[in-house]
Hints:
2 copies of one chain form a homodimer. Chain A has helices at about 25-35, 75-85, 140-145, 195-210, 215-225, and strands at about 5-10, 45-50, 55-65, 90-95, 110-115, 130, 150-155, 170-180, 185-190, 240-245. By secondary structure, chain A is α+β, with helices and mostly antiparallel strands. Chain A folds into 2 domains: about 5-105, Pseudouridine synthase I, catalytic domain, N-terminal subdomain (Alpha-Beta Plaits, 2-Layer Sandwich); about 110-240, Alpha-Beta Plaits. In chain A, strand 2 and strand 3 (about 55-65) form a beta hairpin. In chain A, helix 1 crosses helix 2 and helix 3 packs across helix 4. The longest helix of chain A is centred in the last third of the chain and has 13 residues, at about 195-210. Chains A and B meet through helix 2 and strand 4 of A and helix 2 and strand 4 of B.
Amino acid sequence: MPRYALLVEYDGAPFVGWQRQASGLSVQQVLEDAGASLNGGVPAPTMASGRTDAGVHAEGQVVQIDIALGLSPERLRDALNFHGRPHPVSVVKAAHAPAGWSARFSCTGRGYRYRILNRRARPALQAGRVWHVQGPLDAEVMHRAAQHLLGRHDFSAFRAAACQAKDALRTLDRLDVERQDDEILVRTEARSFLHHQVRNMVGTLVQVGLGRRPVEWPRQLLDGRDRTLAGQNAPAEGLTFLFARYPEGLDWR
Amino acid sequence: MPRYALLVEYDGAPFVGWQRQASGLSVQQVLEDAGASLNGGVPAPTMASGRTDAGVHAEGQVVQIDIALGLSPERLRDALNFHGRPHPVSVVKAAHAPAGWSARFSCTGRGYRYRILNRRARPALQAGRVWHVQGPLDAEVMHRAAQHLLGRHDFSAFRAAACQAKDALRTLDRLDVERQDDEILVRTEARSFLHHQVRNMVGTLVQVGLGRRPVEWPRQLLDGRDRTLAGQNAPAEGLTFLFARYPEGLDWR
Lengths: 253, 253
């Protein structure tokens, strides 16, 4: 069956997450049901580069979808967007997948952005897209603390209790913290992340940014490998899946 | 009665506009009702620098509010945000107003941004914040056309039929069009605008950007002063009130 790659944007707010679940509507279900009309009435099977949690957004999620009907990528993109209405899921681009390509297993790099609105007043325009932290955050000290987490480590201290990965060894390539006016932006990149790793790292860095913990604390937590000690798991709504990297590239249309 | 200046952010989607109306909830009503508890139970009278239409957003609307209770600007900001819940209106800053100051009549410059999402796929994350135009837009030719509208002119061609201004003479100081990835951003500034002027100018420039009209067309419309000939009134949801300028400045807290 022909496989396509999709570049997908979604607002995570109304969904139980990427993954299909009995408990509610998922992004996966929206796409698979939209694909059914192009697949002989049967939901078109999909897999994503990163399984985002409930409430997490995506600007550049990459999804594989297998569709019986032989369509051009442009027609597939338009048809999925038509049938996916009115849900806030949009197929921005589509491509024929290379032979043997998997959105999940061929992916060699994933990038996320976490947005914190750091001011006294509650968000209005950015409600649902940011974590609102009222106390003043020192972005420079957060950035310094973050640099001590880069490289290959056992990230058990920042993993969810429910994380199903076999081991917690991961290589963190980027964890930058920067202030832009009222916002603190955290950008991170790795080949792969553990469940809740980004949000746990952000929650921990915020404790440092508020001055409640020293700059060395995140690294001490990392070395201790105890997942009960890290800062709070930062709320899902501040997190956006930005991109997935593939060595061979994709011919996006 | 003490007068304060407020710097206000709002999502225009759920409102009938800035101005209080019998037909539904306005931003003005949210603020005045929130102020009632600080004003002896009576709604606290307000006036805005710019009366935005239904669906138009604001990042930097400036509002005057008269409150009987003598509060610090910080306390007023926090109290209005508390009592204004859960509406997407946020008082970002507050200041004591200078003697004789009026949010509307002291204002010497107003700035807006209009966002167009220019791609085939419908918006997901930016739904309600952009005008979705599918055909490819040439931002450079739009920008060139826009420059011929700068300066002092009779803007009758770009005014709403319902516009109540005495005359249509306005001085347009800035009308820049720029592409950023999938978005076309239009930024404009003037001492004041006519009703629907920004959205009518944007709708007209889009006709040029799509190649349906020549680059000279917006200026020809301007010179013709016939308000039935301009391009469509661009949708409210793409428009954001960015700032209001005052010669004396304000001591924001």
